[in-house]
Amino acid sequence: SDQATMDTCVVVVKMSGIMAYNGSAMIGMAGKNCVAIASDRRYGVQLQTMATDRSKIEKVHDKLYVGLAGLASDQATFWEKLKFRIAMYNLREERDIKPASFGKLVSTLLYEKRFGPYFIEPVIAGLDGENKPYLFASDFIGAPLIPDMDSNGFVVSGTCTEQLFGMCESMWRPDLEPEELFETVSQCLLAGFDRDCMSGWGATVHIICPDKVITRTLRGRMD
């Protein structure tokens, strides 16, 4: 039918973008003196699933993590460049980089390649010197998004952002304790990528607290 043909065209157009080539789903969410970052575990080539245990979140230091959604090859390249810049910062300053400074570093690295960009959308989650949550997200040329923690303390990225936004707006509330934050971000991510064929197959969740980092792996629908 005409409707079926139109639906098929919409799906093809949506999946044909380079940002959706490997598929991803990612959330950063703030709590009370804690912050969470979570991503799916699928590595695919368009509709073909190649692996179900791929990490998309990297540790910068004990209170700062970065997740990279988008094209897998650009994720690897960009993270290697970030590791070099972080090492140089630590060598020169003799201290860990602050979350806000790291956000500016990521934004600058992306913007300087704007004419031949890295096809990634980063999500940064961390705690500052006063253990207040910090969240950052950007597009592939480094335009920053820093949310208001009092009204919408979350950022999303990947191939199912509409679904993730809807879930986060419904379930997030201010001053979530670490276990409440884990439950909230987990349910948002699982419900979001259940409606997206390009991401899913379980999730990895990091809850960053002042004295520890809680990391858990979730099982999701395997289809």
Automatic annotation (TrEMBL):
Keyword Lipid metabolism recorded: no
Protein name, per record: Proteasome subunit beta
Pfam families according to UniProt: Proteasome (PF00227)
Subunit organization: Component of the proteasome complex.
Species whose genome carries this gene: Hemiselmis andersenii
One annotated GO biological process: proteasome-mediated ubiquitin-dependent protein catabolic process
SUPFAM superfamilies per record: N-terminal nucleophile aminohydrolases (Ntn hydrolases)
Superkingdom, taxonomy of origin: Eukaryota
Protein's cellular compartments: Cytoplasm; Nucleus
GO cellular component: cytoplasm; nucleus; proteasome core complex, beta-subunit complex
Taxonomic lineage from the root: Eukaryota, Cryptophyceae, Cryptomonadales, Hemiselmidaceae, Hemiselmis
Entry-linked CDD domains: proteasome_beta_type_3
Coarse class of the protein's main subcellular location: cytoplasm
Function (record text): Component of the proteasome, a multicatalytic proteinase complex which is characterized by its ability to cleave peptides with Arg, Phe, Tyr, Leu, and Glu adjacent to the leaving group at neutral or slightly basic pH. The proteasome has an ATP-dependent proteolytic activity.
Family: Belongs to the peptidase T1B family.
Keywords recorded for this protein, A-Z: Cytoplasm, Nucleus, Proteasome
